[in-house]
Write a structure and sequence with these properties.
This protein is an alpha+beta fold. It has one domain. About 40% of the residues lie in helices and about 15% in strands.
């Protein structure tokens, strides 16, 4: 199950930036999450951020981070102004 704290943070960021980039909170085991985790070299779960071409931009292990780290990763994905 996803950490509720991270789910709330991700959903809030999706409301703010979802028209510019695709943002989602996915349970491990859904979709291609296991492949993404393996390719990002994460031990079990965390943030896997890819650009529009599928290139890995950031990987953050676990979920002991907070909003600041989520926002930092999202800022790496947002188009330049």
């Amino acid at each position: 199950m996803l950490c509720s704290k991270i789910t709330v943070i991700v959903n809030d960021q999706n409301k703010e930036h979802g028209k510019k980039i695709a943002i989602s909170a996915v349970k491990v085991g859904e979709g291609k999450s296991k492949e993404d985790i393996k390719e990002a070299k994460l031990a079990s779960h965390g943030i896997v951020a890819r650009d529009k071409d599928g290139k890995l931009v950031a990987a953050v292990e676990g979920h002991s981070y907070g909003k600041d780290k989520v926002v930092e990763v999202i800022n790496k994905l947002l188009p330049e102004k």
